[in-house]
Amino acid sequence: MKVAGKTAVVTGGGGGIGAAIALRLVEADARVVVADLDRAAAEAVVGVIPENLRGAAVAVGADVSDEEQVRGLIERTEAEFGPVDLYFANAGVGGPVGLGDEPSWATTIDVNVNAHVRAARLLVPGWLERGAGYFVSTASAAGLLTQIGSAAYSVTKHAAVGFAEWMSVTYGDKGIRVSCLCPMGVETKLLRAGENSGDRLGEAATRAVTSAGAVLAPEVVADLVLEAVDDERFLILPHPEVLEMYRRKGADYEKWLSGMRRYQAGLLAD
Fold first, then answer.
1. Active-site annotation, residues
2. Most buried residue, 10, 23, 215, 253, by most Cβ within 10 Å?
3. Residue 194 reports pLDDT greater than 80
């Protein structure tokens, strides 16, 4: 799909990967709604857009864990720019360290998974009617492999990948395209949350990612996302080595699990 002239929503657009995607979309002549729980952060992103392009983007405060706010976000987009062509389900949280508690699991599931489902329920009927639409899910390499440190993050990112797969299988022949972004380390606040947690397992979680491969700038990831959308490619792997890791996991699950236990032990011993 060519994004020029299209209308896009980017959740979690107030920083990190979301902000970079939103800015790249505007540069590519798309009309963009930058949505974030922190409205001021979304407004700051719109504020750095060059003056001649600023009319192509608006900032909206929205909590994607609330279905009515997701509905309001889509309605606001339609009022500003017309029907949504592309929806970037990018908002995410890191979740609790370890097993966590009930409220923290509920929040992680709501933001990392259920928010994708809510958006799809609201958008798919119109996309089917028009015969076109694009859903881009920000998951993680943790959704293909796993995440040392946080059970909730690992489980919900697996679920996000699974939902994106289901969307593609169910609607891919009906004009709806789906891409799923699965990076390792990207230089964002979320990446550094573990090392700032004061918890050894949380610190290990950050080191697990930063030691596994390059830590990319969000702008690099955004460029790869737009390339994948242009190609209508499902799996977006900014770190190509993730594919080989995934193959090794599938080829010998027991060996992979024992290797991950050794890797975790080494990180905790540092």
1. 153
2. 10
3. no
